[in-house]
Amino acid sequence: MIASLLASIDAVAVTTPATWAAAASVAAGGIVGLSLGVTGGGGAIFAVPLLVYWIGVDPRTAVSISLVTVAATALVGAVERWWYGQVEVRTGLLFAAAGMLTAPAGSWLGGHVPPQTLMAAFAGLMLLIAARMWRKAADRIERAAAGAFATGVGPTCSRDAEGRLRMTTRCFVLLTLVGLFVGLLSGLFGVGGGFLIVPALVAFATMDVFRAVGTSLFVMTLVGAAAVAAQVAAGRSIPLDIAGSFVGGGVPALFVGSWIGRRIGGPTLARVFAVAIVLVAAFIIFKTFLRF
User: Fold this and answer.
1) How many CB atoms lie within 10 A of CB 97?
2) Contact 191, 44 (CB under 8 A)
3) Within 10 Å of residue 66's Cβ, how many Cβ atoms?
């Protein structure tokens, strides 16, 4: 009887960490999905810090899990936006094709960067995103570009009478360069790159914000899938149990975040998330320099 009791205690001790990891992954995925649904770009930046400092995985594995989460969650969001006619497939494919070229390079680079350096650089990226989101709250350029969508005139790209993008050489080169940079960041840090794609589509491709967010999710799906494939090809293991729990928490929260975003003022949400990102970045910097 005592032996049976001890065996039961051992079983609980073994399963409790696994249960905690699964629950924590679902909760962390929920935070990422909620922020991604609310902001439309930049929300996935929370994935790696949550995986490293809350769930306890190493930075490189966190990047791999984040990529799976970003690709899967963005796919669901892109399908929803496509259903409402808010995805511009032709422009998105140009972005995605460029990003899919450089995503494997980012994955390769991430495998050769020391974990502490990777996290310090990630904190720097978070601060840049926070600054971008804060400025976005009162950015007149974005509002002007949204209005330009109706007239078909933009600073770099223009549209015909039916609203289709005129793919001039200058427009093609600029959008391709942004796509290449997004792919590199996605492979290196496990982020979706929506914080760059959305403003680029609005400001340069004269696209309204809602269509830009939908197209951004479409791009993030394809680029994220390419980055995941690069991780697998490089022989890096992706814990499917954690990744699955993360996605399971992120997808429902994405819809909740979209619902909240449609009902609460955008500038207020942008400032709240900018402050949250700065706090998380400060925590990463503190933890990283303690290890040096």
Assistant:
1) 17
2) yes
3) 30
For residue 165, what are the β-bridge partners? Answer: 159
Spatial neighbors of 278 by CB under 8 A, at least 6 apart, are 126, 127, 130
Q: Are 277 and 133 in contact (CB under 8 A)?
A: yes
Closest CA to 227 of 193, 184, 198: 184
Predicted pLDDT at 292:
52
Report residue 22 as tokens: 């699964």
Give me the DSSP letters along 64-118.
HHHHHHHHHHHHHHHHHHHHTT---HHHHHHHHHHHHHHHHHHHHHHHTS-HHHH
Question: Is the alpha carbon torsion for 19, 24, 27, 28 positive or negative?
Answer: negative
Torsion of CA 46, 182, 251, 199, to 10 degrees: 90
pLDDT tens profile 16-52? 456 766 788 888 888 888 877 776 666 677 888 888 8
